[in-house]
Amino acid sequence: MKLKEGFILRKCAQADIVVPVGENAEKYRNVMVTISGSGRMLWDMLKEGCEREDLVNRMLEKYDVERSVVENDIDIFIKKLRRAELIDD
Amino acid sequence: MPKIKLAGLVVDIRRDNPILNNQISDYITDDAAAPDITVDFKEDYIEEEIEQQIRMNLSFPPEYSEYLAIYRYVCTELTRHSGFLIHGSAISYHSAAYLFCAPSGTGKSTHARMWRLAFGSEVGMINDDKPVIRLINGEFHACGTPWSGKHDLDSNICVPLKGICLLRRSAVNSVKRLDATASLAELFSHIYRPRQSEAYLATVDLVGRMLETCPVYELNCNISEQAAICAESAIVPHRQGLS
């Protein structure tokens, strides 16, 4: 999985807003996605390209939480990015 | 078209648009200063407006497309002057501005009308549909614009912004302070997001700064003066905690 090119994160309040830039500015101008907490770390990983499993493992390294909880959170996060058409497979 | 002044900025609109002409009388200025914003574009800028309408299955008369194109141009340029446009109804009350935002048809104009019924002449309309928010002398203000929606309720004033309410229809009236971060996506759905990345990023930065000082509330309300009274006691700083 990899994030599409042409999106940057911009800090706003305690979150980041996904802003379409360049050629995407027009096509994706109605995309409204905010990312907070660990989202930025996952975003950076997806920018480089990685698998769901990599995201889950990274979160488990960082936080002392049940695998099932993390998996659920990651699935929600990926779903949010997919719905906004931000991910290429 | 004569020069106008809105949100403290001199705007020179070099298009002769009949719809806008009918709405600018309160905004005409004889300020001799060089314009902060000059609206001048070629026909292809209006074409973009028409293409957008086609995508949305809409069709407007040419002068209305031009009217919207001027509006889009001003909104984009505003970001160079620490301003942005938000879709909502802005009222002034005791020298403070409060903004009610909600998807079209929810009843933000109706709620603003409830304030006028409940508090009479203490309430003024800044703009019933598309106010400008602008950072002036370190403070965010809600400012009137000639683009004021179907009720044509606006005044050419700038008032310090003291609260933003995201409106929900509800049988029971209640107000809850929201975490600014959690309300970002919804708030941005009401904010004009320019097509130029630079202007878009400037808007994001401004909204971030605004949220450092301006509280955001969820306002559940019905259509009654009581809804305005409930909101007033919760969002007006000098009233908070008194009832």
What does this structure look like?
The complex is a heterodimer of chains A (89) and B (243). Chain A has helices spanning 24-27, 39-48, 52-62, 67-83, and strands at residues 2-3, 7-12, 15-20, 34-35, 87-88. Chain A is an alpha+beta fold and 89 residues long. Chain A has one domain (2-88). In chain A, helix 3 crosses helix 4 (67-83). Chain A is globular. The mean pLDDT of chain A is 92. In chain B, 33% of the residues lie in helices and 26% in strands. In chain B, helix 2 packs across helix 3 and helix 4 packs across helix 7 (225-235). In chain B, strands 4, 5, 6, 7, 8, 9, 10, 11 and 12 form a nine-stranded mixed β-sheet that branches. In chain B, strands 1-2-3 form a three-stranded mixed β-sheet, covered by helices on one side. Chain B is globular and about 50 Å long. Chain B is α+β, with helices and mostly antiparallel strands. Chain B is built from seven helices and twelve strands. The model of chain B has no long low-confidence stretch (mean pLDDT 93). Chain B folds into two domains: 4-81, no CATH class; 86-239, Phosphoenolpyruvate Carboxykinase, domain 3. Chains A and B meet through strand 2 and strand 3 of A and helix 5 and helix 6 of B.
